[in-house]
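Risk register update: the risk of archive-format incompatibility is retired. Evidence:
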Amino acid sequence: MFLPLDKEEYEFYDPSLGKTHFCKFPELRSPHMRYSRDGWLLMHDSFGNNNTFFFNPFTHERIQVAWPHLYLSDAVAFSCAPTSSSCVIFSVWDITNTLITIGTYRPAIRERTTSFFPNKLPLGQRGFEHVVFSNGVFYCLTKSGCLGMFDLSKSSWNLLPRRLPKRLEASLCFMTEYEGDIYLVYSHGHQKPTYLRLDLKNRKWTEKIRFPGLTFYLGFQSAVTTNRDLVDIPKGESKLFV
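Archived output:
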């Protein structure tokens, strides 16, 4: 989905058919998308009071989020569709030289929590570019490759001790999840992408040459990985949409 800056017409691209569809949403005024998952967008209206809300572009359903000033968060994500009773909104609310403030909100019961953790990020690391949820954990990646992990069940925050290989730091990076595993995909222009898989047991990234049969839909607000049955690609290969 592409959100225009100057009109109400939105673009939807269907990679399975290679077609672009256009839709209008007059109920949205100057929206800013923060995260996408399970067919829902987490947005705030930059025109006026900056209210945060969920929006389903397929049903036009809109659900308000009772969390004032959520739009000011450094990073935002949610675990599943807001219509589910288990939905949790995750926010890296603030990062200082000494503390990282993390908030959660459960829309079904309107319960909000705030936790404070020591900031063990390297100096100069003040924000997270990608957030992915998998198996009860929110994974947060900085631009230089530091990975923070927030476990919902334990309300704990940990930092992966090993950073990414230096030769990859300058590449365009996206984080995604597939069948419980966390992957990083580096695009190198017209060259073949590089793939890393998170080895949680040994707490490090392992490089993979390729992932036969997988299709990656990558963006900064969300990333989705599917099997090749949904898209027509040659057997034994993978495909990348950025």
